[in-house]
Amino acid sequence: MSYCAICDCNFYRGKVAAIVGDETEAAVSAAMMTKYASRTYWVSADVKASAVAKEKAIAAGAILLETTIERIQGENRVSSMVLGDGSVVDVDGVFIELGAKSSADLAMDLGVMPEMDDSIKVDRQCGTEVPGVFACGDVTGKPWQVAKAVGEGCVAGISAADFVRGKMA
Ligand SMILES: Cc1cc2nc3c(=O)[nH]c(=O)nc-3n(C[C@H](O)[C@H](O)[C@H](O)COP(=O)(O)OP(=O)(O)OC[C@H]3O[C@@H](n4cnc5c(N)ncnc54)[C@H](O)[C@@H]3O)c2cc1C
Known about the structure:
Bound molecules: flavin-adenine dinucleotide
Shape: elongated
């Protein structure tokens, strides 16, 4: 089981993987997984992904199963999933890609408006459109990876300190 396709896709090279989720994120993950897994299922009972993302996933070879997963089975490791119609599909791994609540709410309270994709636009100093408000990490957009979050965190922290010192000078 994994909750991060971009983090763990390489572990499923040549294996059978299932991506579970309705939104565009799940479709994008399914398309990416086809480059690693020998077979990729995309399980979604209610596809809400953008039409483009859905087409890309299917064109890449993802097999869309428009149903629910009732149960994930296995001893220590995943071996199969039981679908809504009772059928059993053998899989080596299941990726839960149900999305996550954005952290942008706090930004809006501070007067920073997120972009259409919910990310917060920043400049090279990690400054937002509001002077004195800095942003870093997942909230500024992809890639959602620790390395980017830590790097931007460093930049934002130094910028915030410079801003405060400038204000105090
Ligand atoms: C299951 C999973 C596996 C992952 N595996 C990897 C991996 O292998 N390698 C990798 O590089 N990345 C991985 N990631 C991504 C990585 O965790 C993120 O990119 C990273 O944690 C982003 O750091 P961040 O500080 O931007 O956000 P977060 O770590 O999400 O921190 C944001 C913090 O802000 C808090 N917060 C939100 N709103 C408010 C508010 N209004 N007031 C106060 N606090 C608030 C939250 O509670 C949270 O503590 C994984 C992510 C998940 C979910």
